[in-house]
Amino acid sequence: MTTKQIAKELSLDSAELRMRQAGEWLGLEDGLIETIIAPRRVLEVSIPFRRDNGTRDHLVGWRGHHNTTRGPAKGGIRYHPGVTRDEVVALAIGMSLKTAIMNLPLGGAKGGIAIDPHLMSSAELERITRRYVSELIPFLGPDKDVPAPDVGTNSQVMAWVLDQYSASVGHIVPGVVTGKPIELGGSLGRESATGRGVVEAASLAGAQIGLKLDGSRIVIQGYGQVGAWAARLAHARGAKIVGLADVGGAIYNSSGIDVAAVDSKFRSGAKSVVESDQGDVIGKGLDGASEVFAVDCDVLMPCALGDAVDEKIATQIKAKLVVEGANGPLTPKADEVLQDRQIIVVPDIYANAGGVTCSYLEQCQNFAHLSWDEHEVNEKVVSLMQGAFKRLHSLPVDQNLPYRLAASVLGVKTIADSHRMRGLHP
Ligand code: GLU
Question: What's domain 3-171's superfamily in CATH?
Fold first, then answer.
């Protein structure tokens, strides 16, 4: 991760602008859009902690509740050196829109600590997480705010969040967090849910332009939890994965990369897709990885970090359809270039909402004290993605109302309707 990349993360300005454009499209009355744009509350916390070598260190973290009109704030906790207050708010806006588009009874939140988790031991990460959570206790709870994993965090971190919160209230509260280990009330299907949703979004949007997933050529940038699952599930539905990239570089195979063979190489110690001996290596390192964007394909799925595709890269893209697995992978300028080139973009706030959708299903199971089998969870995720796609198409989606704006319009409208019904107190 270079400093340049960190600085280019999804900006608050563009997240706010997209909401404002949706408000204008809807002709919202009486300054309502300002109420919707403003985060309800943002907490900044200092995190003093002990390093393993006995010295004292400090970090800074945030938790932002963006909109809570439709339900408890919901969203991940990110551990990344580039995390800032504004990035947390921008990502929380994305969560409010996602839960609204998916019609989940939840609001939007995000949290994060400016830290490189790879430079910390597991014991240090545990102390940091516990101290961060203890500062957030009044903010959290199944009816207030429910964290989940995001970039740099995982189910183990969620287990510490659950434990720290539960210890402070005196009893276990599984519903305070999602994406937790199965043993603690996590849901089957959670790991694959975001990738599953991305593939379903590609299939639904593709069908609109006569592009069948079966037989299509797909390029995936990012081979973490989202990208790897998208690759496996798209492959299982008959697609050919012609390009793959991660921080180590990019690989290409016009007749389709053997995804199972890539996974098997990872299990036996490979650190990057370029070490998988599958396809040709077309770029090495982080800079070389962007070669994957120029690969000839039908569908491109950027599934790594924010702002990976800038204006210049956007001119090289050959896909007909771009489906955003990551949060904010296209810069606003790249988005304009793709629109001018009539390349269809399915935005993050719909395309990667399978993750939070499964989080919601996890909470349903926690509240009802039951556990569904994996097939049932997967089916529910897919059916909720399909329902949201139908609602998206109740708007006149076309060149003048591209999916990005349509998704913001649907999200903002859903939130605005509930604001109106609740009224303004006092
Ligand atoms: N971090 C994921 C996202 O950005 C999941 C959030 C959640 O499950 O609450 O959508």
Answer: Leucine Dehydrogenase, chain A, domain 1 (3.40.50.10860)
Write the CA distances from 266 to 23, 128, 262, 263, 278, integer angstroms: 46, 29, 6, 5, 12
Please tell me the distance between residue 52's alpha carbon and the centre of ligand 1 in angstroms: 30
Query: Which atom of ligand 1 sits closest to the CA of residue 352?
Result: 10
Residues in CB range of 192: below 8 A, 6 or more apart: 229, 232, 233, 378
Ligand 1: residue whose CA is nearest its atom 9: 75
Residues annotated as catalytic are 110
Q: Show pLDDT as tens, one digit a residue, over the chain (426 residues).
A: 333 343 334 489 989 999 999 999 999 998 999 999 999 999 999 999 999 999 999 999 999 999 999 999 999 999 999 999 999 999 999 999 999 999 999 999 999 999 999 999 999 999 999 999 999 999 999 999 999 999 999 999 999 999 999 999 999 999 999 999 999 999 999 999 999 999 999 999 999 999 999 999 999 999 999 999 999 999 999 999 999 999 999 999 999 999 999 999 999 999 999 999 999 999 999 999 999 999 999 999 999 988 899 999 999 999 999 999 999 999 999 999 999 999 999 999 999 999 999 999 999 999 999 999 999 999 999 999 999 999 999 999 998 999 999 999 999 999 999 999 999 988
Q: pTM here?
A: 0.95
Task: Assign a CATH topology to domain 192-342.
Answer: Rossmann fold (3.40.50)
32 Cα to the center of ligand 1, angstroms: 26
Distance, CA of 148 to CA of 157 (rounded, Å) = 9
Collect all residues with Cβ–Cβ distance below 8 Å to 146 and sequence separation of at least 6: 72, 73, 74, 106, 109, 140, 175, 176, 177, 178, 359, 363
98 Cα nearest atom in ligand 1: 10
Ligand 1 atom with the smallest distance to the CA of 75 is 9
Domain locations along the chain = 3-171, 192-342
Spacing, Cα 426 to ligand 1 middle (Å): 32
